[in-house]
What we know:
The structure is a homodimer. Chain A is mainly alpha-helical. Chain A folds into two domains: about 10-55, Orthogonal Bundle (Arc Repressor Mutant, subunit A), CATH 1.10.10; about 55-190, Tetracycline Repressor, domain 2, CATH 1.10.357. Chain A is about 70% helix and about 0% strand. The first copy, chain A, is built from nine helices and no strands. Chain A is elongated, with a radius of gyration of 19 Å. The termini of chain A are far apart. The structure holds a DNA duplex.
Amino acid sequence: MATSRGPYAKGVAKREEILRAALEVIARHGYRKTSTRELAAAVGLSEAGLLHYFGTKEQLFEAVLRARDEADRSRFVDVPDSIGLLAAAVRHNGSVPGLVELYSTFSAEAGDPEHKSHDYFVDRYAAIRSSLADAARARQAAGTFSPSADPETVATALIALSDGLQIQSQYDLPADPADLFDNVLDLLRDS
Amino acid sequence: MATSRGPYAKGVAKREEILRAALEVIARHGYRKTSTRELAAAVGLSEAGLLHYFGTKEQLFEAVLRARDEADRSRFVDVPDSIGLLAAAVRHNGSVPGLVELYSTFSAEAGDPEHKSHDYFVDRYAAIRSSLADAARARQAAGTFSPSADPETVATALIALSDGLQIQSQYDLPADPADLFDNVLDLLRDS
DNA sequence: GTCTATACCAAGATAGAC
DNA sequence: GTCTATCTTGGTATAGAC
Lengths: 191, 191
């Protein structure tokens, strides 16, 4: 048996270059219209060469979304709790429509239990839900959040609100989704 | 000039048969995995014959969603206002996972302004938003809804909540999405 | 019964995943 | 390169208005 040696430094760098390029191409052409062919051309690789790094098109897009989560976390390190983090992310989404389209489409498609990225979203939703519920409990203890609201319910609803606003923002929304999200949070503080 | 004669009785019947069959096949196999070939076979047509009626696969799926909206409206005629209608639809969605997958995926994909069904969703969202805002105003006037909530904001947020719950329901949700939706409505009544 | 738009099919062009 | 998917082209057969 060959023992796994892990990626070489060159491979790591190429991976990052591919992720950056994928982000850029997706932002311009959208998710559905971005082919592996086009992506390969953008980084100077053959299609086979590109897929060597990520296995399938889907795993590549999953990697792009993981990279975005990571980037958001480090962009908003100073935000006090995960409810605030979600609000900041919703606001930031307004400036990256290509990523919003990727996230919306991909999270809907991966709803199929046989989709390669299904488990990624199961884990991601569970983690966010748990951390939002913690934040809701902390805010309730501090007296800055509706005491009658069930934390788990609030957590699930806030995620749904964020996801749903990302979809609606692709159509003609009369207001800024981020302002809307903040307004709903205000309602929950006062009820 | 060729004057349009409209569809023959046979064509009208076949159209309905196709929509019914599409609903069933999509409910079983999901949206992404349903091919025009499979759909054509299910109604005893060639692919070209199938596409003769709807032009493209996308227009066929749009027709399926229009038929669903129509079916929901007649299923819930006795529901007093459109907020109640949305709540009833969310509850009903729990029994038709294939349609939920179709709706989630398709509404995300059609976010692309060049998608053939983009305008359908623009109109649909605008209509639902307007009717939900009317319902919120009526409930506020009747004293059964938070007076501090802006009706337009509530309308957009309720749609987002419904859409987002449809996505999350495809993963491991700890609670029933319909109960969750009702709980959020309760919070809005008391605030 | 004539006429032509509608209903439908066979084959293939095109394009993307892998 | 191979396989699979959508959609077009170019046709024939039939419904149904007149």
